[in-house]
Amino acid sequence: MTVTLADVAARAQVSPATVSRVLNGNYPVAAATRERVLRAVDDLDYVLNGPASSLAAATSDLVGILVNDIADPFFGIMASAVQSEITGPGGRAGGERMAVVCNTGGSPERELTYLTLLQRQRAAAVVVTGGAIEDAPHAAAIGGKLRRLGEAGSQVVLCGRPPADEAPDAVALTFDNRGGGRRLTDHLIGLGHRRIGYIAGPTERTTTRHRLEGHQEALAAAGVPDDPRLTLHGPYDRRSGYDATLELLRRAPELTAVVAANDTVALGACAALRDRGLSIPDDVSVAGFDDLPFSIDAVPALTTVRLPLYEAGARAGRIAMGREEEPPGGIATVHGELMVRGSTGTPRRA
Fold first, then answer.
1. What's the distance, CA 33 to chain centroid?
2. Is the pLDDT of residue 347 over 60?
3. Which of 205, 106, 280 lies closest to 288 in space, CA to CA?
4. Using CA atoms, how far apart are residues 289 and 160, in angstroms rounded to an integer?
5. Is residue 116 assigned to a domain?
6. Do 109 and 145 contact (CB within 8 A), yes or no?
């Protein structure tokens, strides 16, 4: 049975005229109303009828790039790399596409909304960056939306994100977060550390779980007890690293190392240690993850796992534009490199 505009209006509890305004974008609509209409469109899988639908098999010149937080260098670097490939080298041939960066703010609802809008705009390609939210209903909804984008002719590429079971045709360039986490903790154990605090990211993110699992695998392989009191979760920001480090020191004053979920969190950890009068790495070693540009300029320079963010983003852009073949099976693992710097050393109070 064909879903009509009236069906969407009834589902969203608004007038058909309001639905039309939201979908056409030609009249201001309250944000809450807009969200409700787009959610109804997504729930009912509504496709615009009428003259505009004669182009349903075609795609536009639009390419969507979804990021969690464009202010975070992790996402900014990847988005910049994707866009550089979409516009073509030096702006020459192949520069006919327009890239639109969609900042979700980490919101599951906003992620779905942007995918709905990109489907309506018949985007030529969609690149989704960063870890996925580990919520079964949301994963199914995202997978279904990605699948429908592909069926409509959009090239879908996941960059730094696990494959989506519900969207088997989407290309996935997935980061080896688990392997990187293990190498980082192996490094600290090799230096003699046994009391290692771990500041993880948000519990609902795949990136968080995979990096933490790598840390736990390294502890288990070395026979080091995994004390649950020494693992704390929080946002991927500096404040989280600062507060969590103070709490770790309260729980375990004998702590000799801190592993942070990413480099920004690690900077917060370093600030907390300095404020407590502790030296890095003489008193406590600190390690991060990602190797963001500021990491090497920290004092001391930060030991971390380098993810090739720009290279991965550029590859995603080339695949999205059909300038590079898809990896075998549509999935490729992007490995990280351990960067040993001055923030880690042999513990003097082991």
1. 28
2. yes
3. 280
4. 14
5. no
6. no
Helices (H), the chain: 5-12, 16-24, 31-44, 73-86, 108-120, 136-151, 177-191, 206-222, 238-251, 263-275, 309-320
pLDDT tens profile 65-115: 999 999 999 999 999 999 999 875 544 444 568 899 999 998 998 999 999
Name the nearest CA neighbour of 113 among 167, 169, 32, 53: 32
pLDDT in tens, 172-211: 999 999 999 999 999 999 999 999 999 999 999 999 999 9
Question: pTM score > 0.85 for this model?
Answer: no
| Predicted confidence band of residue 24 (pLDDT cuts 50, 70, 90) | low
Q: How far apart are CA 147 and CA 154, in angstroms?
A: 9
Rg (CA), the chain: 23
Q: What domain count does the chain have?
A: 2
CA 226 to chain CA centroid, Å, is 27
Residue type at 50 in one-letter notation: G
| Phi, psi of 250, rounded to the nearest 5 degrees | -65, -45
The C-alpha atoms of residue 190 and residue 347 are separated, in whole angstroms, by 11
CATH classification at residue 33: 1.10.260.40
Rounded-to-integer distance, Cα 57 and Cα 53, Å? 8
Q: Which domain holds residue 201?
A: 177-306
286 in any annotated domain: yes
Rounded to an integer, what distance in angstroms lies between the CA atom of residue 129 and that of residue 135? Answer: 17
3-state secondary structure of 218: helix
Burial per residue of 30-42, b for 16 or more beta-carbon CB atoms within 10 angstroms, e otherwise: eeebbbbbbbbbb
- Tell how strand 331-334 and strand 285-287 pair up: unpaired
Q: Is residue 99 part of a domain?
A: no
Q: Return the number of other C-beta atoms located less than 10 Å from residue 132's C-beta.
A: 22
* Alpha carbons 125 and 142: distance in angstroms, whole number: 16
